[in-house]
Structure formats: structure tokens, C-alpha cells
Write the C-alpha cells for this entry.
Amino acid sequence: MPNRTNYDVSSVEREREEYRKQERTRSVVTSISSSLALVALVVVTLHFSPGWPRVKESFFSAEYFAQAWPQVVEGLWLNIRVLGVALVGVAILGMSLALVRMTTSAVMFPLRVLARFYTTIMRGIPMIVVLYLIGFGIPGLKLFGRIDKAVLGTIAVVMSYSAYIAEVLRAGFEDVHPSQRASARSLGLTTGQTMWYVIIPQGIRKIAPALMNDFISMQKDVGLISTLGAVDAVRAAQIVVAKTYNFTPYVVASILFILMSVPFILLNDWYSERLRKREQTGGMV
Amino acid sequence: MSAEYTLDTDSRFGEKVLRLDNVVKRFGDLTVLDHISFDVRKHETVALLGPSGSGKSTVMKCINLLEQVNDGQIWLGDTDLTDPRENQDAIRSRIGVVFQQFNLFSHMTVLNNVTLAARKVHHWPREKAEEKAMGLLRRIGMDHKAKEYPDRLSGGQQQRVAICRALMMEPELLLLDEITSALDPLLVGEVLEMVGELKSQGATILMATHEMSFAHDAADRIVLLRGGHIAENGSPEQVMDNPTDPETQAFFAAYNRV
């Protein structure tokens, strides 16, 4: 046998590779030209719209942008704090609801029914209504004295999101293969230990992308607490708008919300991709 | 020659570790196990054979308390497993179980898989548990994989680690439920070899299997299930080589053709 370091490539393969190269070049050219065409279409449409100069002035004014920036940023700090507290609250309440719904013991029956009722109702009500109910209903009871609007808003966000998260968690836990539970039980682990050491860690991994997606969605929904009057980024923008009759502050708030979510969106994409790769390479037995 | 073997009373082995006494299991109107009785003695290897749907898996699940019997009793030593007053978790940790697949916890390293029960159920300190686990892994040449996650192991390696995990607390009985059924034929050998070693070291094993030649060579006794009844219960020579019952003959003949 001659010692060959290079593979002998047949003319058929050379011809195929040539064709593939052409195809690749063609697809790159096509995607660049279609992107340029789209950008051109948008620019031209805006340019020839009779109202564009006014829209540009109302939404994208550099002057108002600079004026609104400090106040909106200050408002955003409230959003971030609300988000942090809500995240912890949702984690605790959502996990509790999911665990209660998965119990089988007779003692837990009433709680199980209650949890089911809660998740069903809460997922059905528009979030804005929950905000109004908590934000205006609880102070209306006149039981607790004055409560900060941001606190009430946070409670409403937690109540609403917990119902969704609970169902996502439950789906993840139930997706863990039954053999894993059987293995854990046959080792002598109690139901609780099986849940804690085996089902929860595996379930969470499966649904991590869905959970992160809900987190990103919650990030922007904390902006809804502005409807209660809490001065967050959206409300701060609204105040400037009311004074100036210019909508640029809303764009400022939007940009800040986008900036806040980008890291988590990237993190989510990265993690989902890693999970996908792992599932494709592993998966023996 | 078959005269020296009588049902259940093989004097070569010790006391009865497991005893099924008229076990009945129904799923709705379907009676899956209809008054099943047999024993497994100390140091004995019993192979549970039978066509799919004959009730092998159900027997295993009843012993492992994953299913509740509808009548009869199952004794592990002096403990009646079917008594609802018994602590089920305590009973389970006296029996080592390996399933067909998805045995290992995919989010834990091999070492954590093997030591989990010792650490969490029996409250051993980590060092003691890991020392013992490493000893077990070393015996099967898997100690260098201790820090790996299960998805980096071949199916055969995973099953061997699962057997190690089942052996960790020195169970009175080892239940092997079709542990090679999900494996590539090339990987079956290494798992069966390990079972053979355990047997020679004196383990008490009840295995449900489709590996007829392995059952023939490794088992001390064959229990053949058919339609929820025990069709045969005797030595491999008796049951597999010289069956007298025509249905038993047909069952093994079908396997020999494959």
C-alpha cells in the first residue's frame, strides 16, 4: 500500500464541490441584495410620506431625547428594583404552586384544588386588570393604611407571573423520565428527596429557555406598574410627554428596556443552543 | 436426572431471601399475575423468563413497590412488603434495582450517582461514601470515569455504573429488570459479564431477561411465566434443555430460531 497523505478526490466530487461553492456565493449575494432592498423600501417610503418630518420630530427628536434621558433613567431604576423583588417572589410562589399541584397525598387535597383554581383564573385575567384589582382594590379596603404603588404593582406582577411560571415548571418536572423517579425511589429516597435531588434539577434544565423567555417578558411587563402611578421609566417618560407634547421620551424608555433585555436574550440564545447541541451529541440510552 | 430438582427447595442455597406467596395483580379487568408463588434463596440467581406481556415486569414492579399487589404477600426476609404499615422507603433501600434504561441521574456525575443514597438516605459522610463508591467503580474498571456525566458513557458503561449504584448499600436482593434490552448487542456482553461476577461473589439476584443463553448459563433456576401463571420453575437443564410441556418447547424453540 502506498503511503498517501492526501485523499484522492474523484472528478465527480470535485464537480460537486464546485457546484456547492457557486450555490453558497449565490445565496450570500441574494441575502445581501434582499436586505438592501428592504432598507431602501423603508427609507424611501418614510422619505416620501408627507407626515414624516412631523413624526420624526415627535418621536425621534434629539433635543427631547437629551431632556428626558435623566428622568427616564431614574425611573428605570425603580423598574430594576421591582424586577429583582418580583423575580424572587415569582420563583417562590411559582415553585410552591407547581409543587402543590404535583402532590398526591390526601392531606394536600384542598391546597391542590386551590392551586389549580389559582393558576386557571390568573392565567385568564388580563394583567392590567390584576394590576387594577391589587393597585386600587387593596388600598380601597382601607385595612393597611397607605401602601406604596410600586409595592402593590410588584405584588400584582408576582401574582400574575407565578401562575404562568408554575405551569411551565410543572410541565418540566412531569417531563423527567419516569425511570428517573423510579430509580430514585428504589434507592430509598423519599418523595421529597426524589423531588429535590432528581426531579427539580433535571426539570429546570429542560425548561430553562422557556423560563428565561418568561423572565424577559416580565422585564418589560414591570413597566405596567406605571398605570398605578408608580414613577417608573414609562411613567417618567409620560410625565415629560405631558409637559412637552413630544413622544420622544417613550422612545427613550423603549431603548432602555431593550438594552436591559438584550443581555438576557443573548444568554437565552446561547443556553438554548448549548442544550440543543448537547441533546444531539449525547443521548445514548 | 431431573428428580433431584424439586420446586423451590434447592438445598444448595441458604434461607429464603424473597418469597412470593399467591401474588395477584390486576389492571382493571385484566389479571396480569394470577396467584404467583416462588422464592429466591440466598446466593441464588433466578431468571424470570416469559413472552412480552407475561407479567415479568409486573412481578419486578410489585417487589420494588412500584405497583401494589391486589392479593397475596411478598416477603423480604421476615418483612411483609405488602403490609401498608411497613416503611416503604426503608424496604426499598434493602433492594437494589436496575431498570432497562434511564437509570442514571443525567445531571450528576458517575460518583454522585453512586453515592447519592449513601449520603442522603443513610447519612454517610461524603468521604466514606466516595471511598466505597470508588472501590466499586475500580472493580469494574470505571474509576477513571467517576467525574464524568452519564451522557459521556456508552450504554453498557451506564448500566454497569447503575449496577454499582444498586450495590452501594449492599442490598439483600438485586433486581435486574431487562437491563440489556435497550443496549447495542455489542455492549450486552460487558454487562452480562459483570452480572456473572456478582453471582460468583455470592449476590442474590432476580433478573427478568430476554437473553436466553445468558439465563441458561448464569441462572441457578428458571421461572417461566405465561399468561400470568408460572408455567415452569426449575433448573435451566430441566426447563430449557428438556422441557416436556409443548408450549414451553415452542417458546424456547422460537428464541432459538432468532
Summary: Chain B touches chain A through 37 residues (CB under 8 Å). Chain B is about 35% helix and 25% strand. The longest helix of chain B spans residues 185-200.
